[in-house]
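Troubleshooting log. The previous structure file for this entry was overwritten by mistake, so regenerating from the original sequence record. Sequence copied from the archived sheet and checked twice against the printout by T.R.
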Amino acid sequence: MKRFALAALTLALGPVLSQSAHAAEGMWMPKQLPQLARPLKATGLTLDPAKLASLTEYPMSAVVSLGGCSASFVSPQGLVVTNHHCVYGSLQYNSKPERDLMKNGFLSNSLAEELPAAPGTRVLVTVEASDVSAQVIDAAAAKLQGKARIDAMEKNEKALVAACEAEPGYRCNVNSFFGGLQYQLIKQMEVRDVRLVYAPAGGIGNFGGETDNWMWPRHTGDFGYFRAYVGRDGKPADYSPDNKPYQPKSFLKIASTPLKDQDFVMVAGYPGRTNRLRLPSEADFNLGFLQPAIIKAYGEELEAIAAATDKRPDAAIVMANRVKGLNNTLKNYQGQDASYQGSDILARKQQDFAAMKKWVMADAKRRALYAADIEQVEQLLAQQQATARSEFLLRFTSPALLNSARTLVQLGHERAKPDAERKSGYQERDMLRLRQGLQALDRRYDETTDKAVVAHFLGQYLTLPAEQLNGAFLKALGVAPGMDAAAIKARLDALYAGSQLKSMAERLQWLARPLQGLEASNDSFVGAAVALYADDERRETRDKELAGRLQQAYANTMAAQIAFKASQGQIAYADANSTLRVSFGKVTGRTPGRDGEAWQAFSTLRGIAAKATGEGEFDAPATELAAIRKRDFGGYQVASLESVPVNFLATLDTTGGNSGSPVLNGKAELVGLLFDGTLDGVIASWDYNDRMNRSICLDARYMLWTMKVVDKADRLLKEMDIK
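Regenerated output below.
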């Protein structure tokens, strides 16, 4: 740990050195915000920045994670607002052909009518974040290399998590920052009983669909509501009719002053991943190979799903959540690819990296600290990327039920060990999640569709050079190079017919069965999983060995990068990693926009009426269109717009995972929900561009207008103290 002393000092000073940096860039940890008081105050924050650093006080205690989306409490009775596309999985899970909640929406008229959310849905409230770098890489782990190093670090992490979770009702995780340079223990209260309360019709919540996704102007009512429930004692509990609404320590209030162009805004949420600190070789691999390969594969998967579900509305409902997720990622990656091709992004990253190495080599002390690891990290990354290239298609060839079987077989092996020695993901703390994952498959699995997707990619995989094929996988599935489509189909038909795992009851029974029972099973997918276990372990060991060698070299290279940036007075903030972050900026349009036209800061109800066709993605509800025609604005109109604002643009630094994040004004009042970015700006995940970066937000006034005028959600408006 001594070798990182300079880096630790740099990280501590980073925010101070970057006071002059542009306010819009940066996904800041709450604890850093007091050090950013000057730019925060200068751009419009009226709240004391120190209050933003406290995770257990207003407003941060009201901001929650849904594990993939962000959200916030908006009433004293545990009401949670987030994006429509974040509650979509629960709409899908509760839908049937005769009751399509995705299309028609859902509104509960009482607590009793609220529906259980999809299995595994959580409301996670962050209550503590502490630096545990010295405990994760302790003196013993620091002496190790390869897999032994990773195993020692994982052992330390599990011990930290176990101690943290000794208090019931909390979920704890160790998160890596700056490429493994720092580690934080994040403690979150885990609300397990989550219920669907309200979501507008798909013609509002998903208005514009994939056509408008990542585009401006937008007119999407991307909002929905959950409610968090706890046991009668006020502590997190599994679903029960006897549970009561959770009473959060604080909740957000709707803004008391109207939002307007050039106003200060900030967003608090859980952004998933950014890659701005990644090395040039990683940018080249991901943007030059991996993401283009995923674009191709996802496009083909969507085509296979569409063909398999054609004229089968029940299957289309089952696959709807998967289709929505694929489309969203696909368009994002397409936007990144369009920005990357022909750009100077890689050249600039290479130039910056070369300048950093030159700076390191110019000083004997810096050479001693960093040079060896910088040289090694590039060699190790090349090995890692070669493996990823050769095994890319393998990820698309495993049937969904085989994936479940592999999980069950792994669990069987882990259950024979003491809990502390089990792999992460297979400890007692994970059993409920495993069970709920197997339950959720019941309404998200269609055999015909799954078989069609697997057959498509398996056909491609079997044409690869022999040295790229995984022999154990081919043997377990009973397939061979050169098989034609008919032979592949026949083999898959036999595999699927030979398994009972399509039954949820059967899947759940295997959770408790001993390993011997799994190994003796005649179920085709369980048998294949048993046969694959040794090879799965071999590949995991191989990857851990490389990861252990890479961890120290990569972390120290990050330390060199940060020290170099600090020497130039540049910003020092960690890439997003699904932990609580705050970004701030202002409401503003953009010139030029797409095709050279200016983008106004706000869209309005007029755009909904102009786009509405009555079909497909632009099928706005008749009640909404009637209200727009009558100019029934419900008191939410803005005089300068002569209408109700629907969505707005802001210079907020956000990414995937921020969906549903509350957008706040300078007094930390709710003015909207973050739900998207612009297609030509999504490359900011790798390369931030101040001129192009804009986040698209739902205006809270459109949400309230929809609730009041269109859906008559008076009960919820009263609960939120909306007059």
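The radius of gyration is 26 Å. Archived copy saved in two places this time.
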